[in-house]
Amino acid sequence: MRIVLVTHAEASEDAPRALTDAGVASAEQSAARIAHIMGKAWRVNKAVSSPAVRCVQTALVILGTLSGEKLRRLDTDPRLMAARDPMGPEQLFRALADYPCEGLLVVLHADLANALPGGCRPQGCRDGWFTERPVLCILDLEPGGPPDSARIFLLEGPDGVSVFPPGYGASFKKKLLLT
User: Is residue 64 part of a domain?
Assistant: First the structure.
């Protein structure tokens, strides 16, 4: 299954940590980038987000562009919440296993940097967290497969520049082939 993961966009430091105007604009840019990469025929069939306001708002902005008329529900999953320690791959993939479908959108926190499969340690991170947001990740995962079987096709920061680690090479990053 093809999964689109997006970290939340820029948010205010004040509670409830809602998106800033710049955050809304960057979430809109993320939606446009996803649409461009995945093609016009691709649609979000299921969406899940961390319950944090900044994640839900990011998801709603993206869904406004990508879901069309079909999707009328955004699930929230507390397993996607940010914690003191960054999320690991096992936690992320346990959550993903509960949403097996094509066209899955997941919006979560910057600790995605620590939860990527295959020991991928992207650029632009500090202590397991992306330092800039939103980050877009597109991966394929066989339903029920272990995290290390997932393949990342795209990993880019808010400026559209790859944040794959230097030298990760073709053994991990494959050309995005749309099915």
Answer: yes
**How much is the pTM?**
0.91
The tens digit of pLDDT for each residue in 146-178 reads 887 899 989 999 888 899 987 664 444 444 444
User: Identity (one letter) of the amino acid at 22?
Assistant: A
Count structural domains, the chain: 1
11 phi and psi angles, rounded to 5 deg: -130, 160
3-state per-residue secondary structure call for 141-158: CCCCCCHHHCEEEEEECC
Task: Look up the CATH number of the domain holding residue 29.
Answer: 3.40.50.1240
Residues 6+ apart with CB under 8 A from 125: 113, 114, 131
- Token pair 């993320």 is found at 30
What DSSP character marks residue 119?
G
